[in-house]
Amino acid sequence: MRDDGRRDARRQSVRAYLHRWVESSGAQLLVVDPSDDGGALAEAMAGRGVHVTWVGSTLDGLVEFGRTDPHAVVVAPSAPGIPAEEFVGVIRQHGSPYVIAAACAGDEAGADRVGPLMLAGASAVAVRPYAPQHLWDLLTHAPRSLAEHARLEFGPVALDATAYSVRVDGERIADLPLKEFELLRALLLAAPGVVTDDELRDALWGTDGKRPGGNTIAMHVTRLRSRLGSAVDVRRIRGRGYCLTAE
Questions:
Q1: Which residues are CB-contacts of 10 (< 8 A; sequence separation ≥ 6)?
Q2: What are 214-237's pLDDT values in tens digits?
Q3: How far is residue 106's CA from residue 85's CA, in Å, rounded to a whole number?
């Protein structure tokens, strides 16, 4: 029982760490919209270096606005709580987020409510259901650009999630397979620190369902090493995990 408790505590610690890890890896986008849970949008935006927090009411939006200090906020006029335009006015008084008003295609009543949001401080309009590419286009032109958060660097290695590219000593290498790209990003986020096997499994395959063993991770590491060349190494720290080292 004690061992089970320790394993559960360890797993909870890993999940909490990964939650902070994902949030710290990208810019913050707050979506205040009662229509959906945002899972698909969050997954799509993660590849662009953006962490999505989705809430269903403006009152929850105020809480998350204070917690995450988002670069941008998407607000649906239909969100319950305080009126959406009042919510926009409040957050504009306590920061300079880029505010996007949400509208449904063909919804004339909803379109009429977008005007007050624009007057309250919204700068753009996005149509629901949200298209990740359209949102990204809006966000990259915001005064507080999000694009820089999709880029990670350590030593001679630079990864750009928006362009799905990796450069070593300034030269772009051949596109990495998805798992190796995510492996490199996980290592870059922690560099020069160590990422454990459990953390890599959760980062690459999620926390639910069947996950591969250490041999599969080692296989991906071996392939990644060969693609990066000699300028940087993926070191195995026995009993702990992996880390990036640069010459």
A1: 198
A2: 788 899 999 999 999 888 899 998
A3: 21
Q: Does residue 166 lie in a domain region?
A: yes
Do 92 and 120 contact (CB within 8 A), yes or no?
Answer: yes
Name the residue with tokens 């504009």: 92
Q: What is the DSSP string of 180-222?
A: HHHHHHHHHHHTTS-EEHHHHHHHHH-SSS----HHHHHHHHH
13 belongs to a structural domain: no
CA 2 to chain CA centroid, Å, is: 35
Taking the C-alpha atoms of residue 47 and residue 150, their distance in angstroms, rounded to an integer, is 8
Quick check: is 6 in a domain? Answer: no
Asked if pLDDT for residue 18 goes beyond 50, the answer is no
Who's near 86: CB < 8 A, 6+ residues apart?
58, 120
Same domain? For 74 and 39 the reply is yes
Give the domain-ending residue among 121, 145, 169. 145
Q: What is the DSSP secondary structure assignment for residue 75, as one 8-state letter?
A: E
Same domain, 59 and 160: no
Q: State the helix-helix crossing angle for 178-190 and 197-205, rounded to 10 degrees.
A: 130
Collapsed DSSP state (helix, strand, coil) of residue 104:
strand
- Single-letter amino acid code for the residue at 166: V
The pLDDT confidence band at residue 20, using thresholds 50, 70 and 90, is: very low
Closest listed residue to residue 244, CA positions, set 189, 181, 173, 166: 189
Using CA atoms in the order 146, 148, 150, 155, what is the torsion angle rounded to 10 degrees?
-170
